[in-house]
Amino acid sequence: GLPAALPTLPLELTVLYNSLLFTAGASDSAIKGEAEGIHQGLLRVLEACGACGQDLSMEELWQKVLQEVTVKELQAPLHRLGALQAAWWLAAGRLGSVAGLFQLLNTAEEPGRSHCSEVQNELLSLIKAWRVPPEGASLSLVQSAKDLKEILCTAAAFLQGLQELEAGNFPTALSLLQEAAGGFCSKKILAQIYTCLGCCAQRMGKPQTALQHLKRALRVDFQCLPALSHVAAVYHELGETDAELQALTLLYEALGKNPPAAASSSPYFLMRTELLVHTPVLTSLLRHHHPSEVKYLLAQRCLQDGRVADAVEHYLDFLSLLQEGLQQQVPLDGSSALPRIPEVFLEAASALEQAGRHQDAITMCEEVISRTTDLIPRVLRVEERLEQPECSLPGAELAGGLLSQKKESLCCLAWRAAGYLHQGWAWAELGESKEAITQFSRCLSDLLRLQLHGSGVKPTDNLQAEVEVLQKIRLLSLIGRGSQFLELGRHKEALLDFQHSLQISPGNPDAASYLVQALWKLNRKQEAAAQWQKLSQSSPGEDGQQGQGRPLPLYLVSCLEQAMFPHSEPLARSIQDYLGTAAQDTSS
């Protein structure tokens, strides 16, 4: 409460500098908000000099102080306080304010010199050009201004590198992140910078360079587990499945251990780079995966690569984690690698089927069917005019909610129908054709709930993906049921299913091949031969089964393989002989 006095202001500002550093360092969390102490300190400086600045913003206040206060004894403490202000502004992402402040600090040192020279990065050049004030012998600093300057340089390079990375300016981001990596920081931050360098190189299409940076991050700090998850992603991109699975296994094991507390921090610095850099893009790049997410990735990758036994083991391990309250442990903001739980059950069923554990697969699908039964309306209409409304239109929120509800109902219908589809193929593999036909028929009956309305009965883009999956399930179920009708000698019923399949998917080679076989078994040899010739002349790309190029859900891939026509050499020879005989009869 004492009036400001020039003789005591250097000591007062030094005490303020030290106390702010203690406050920042003691919190051990990112700096947020304004440093109110600095604001009060600057007002006391102006008060001592007979000036006022109550209504000024912080930028204006600093400009007034540095331009009007010329007392030599105040220059060093003001510069140190200015560096501390820059730290607060860096933490808030106010890079322009930091550049303006250092422009003022540098101009205050040498009024005739401008530091807006043509350097690659203006902010870094301004910070580096700042001359650290000498420390007085009588005043102790808890952290030197020289160390603070180095931390500011590192944080400024890191923050700008992240901004450029988010903006897609990868060469500039790479240069700034490399600058930060050569700066003043703890091992923890250095590992994070190398991780960001790896992500930048990966996005530049340089996977090998990315791996070098990511491995360097792990050598610096093995507790930087996000680097290990990015290593797995790069190996996935390179198609090196063994290395990817090894990285995911190491990650899963590491996540199961309790890391040593603050193993790689630097406790002897109160102001540290980690207190200044906390942006959403960094949070996204360094997101820690839950062990269950990694376990699912292991299961998924094994299934995709045909490592069925390993896939089954990982899926069953993952499903056991559901008993531990997985929903509460995994983020629900869309950042998780996990699909919806029914899809995981269906993928597990697919793995079990491929491993020959058909009864277990049937049981797994029954879980999906029973859980989704009450979630599907008796009739599900998809109309062409149903589109996502503009947010500004009246009733947009309600219409958007209805669309979301319809999408959810379509997903539930797809999961339940896929459960019956898998059960049908499982019973077929067990040689139980009648039971298989029952399950395929239940699948097709379920899909009758879906009604497409509108000209051309083509759904809008909002629901196109879900409807395409349902149409694919219908196709696979018709082929599956038709093949089992053939097994039982019910050739006419088989023929109808294959004809219906081709109505859903004209030109589908598997449905067309089965159709040929059914016609041949019905002794309709002329039609069979004509269809066979048509099929032989069509190019492989005429199928058109992939819709808009959308990938098939993983849980349907095995069904697609099971629906492939087992090409029969005897049938082909019989048709060729028939065509040859017919040609001879025509010529004679």
UniProtKB/TrEMBL annotation:
GO terms for biological process: interstrand cross-link repair. GO terms for cellular component: Fanconi anaemia nuclear complex. Gene3D superfamilies: Tetratricopeptide repeat domain (1.25.40.10). This is FANCG protein. The keyword Cell inner membrane does not apply. The keyword Phosphoprotein does not apply. Keywords: TPR repeat. TPR repeats lie at residues 475-508. InterPro entries: FANCG, TPR-like_helical_dom_sf, TPR_rpt. It comes from the Eukaryota.
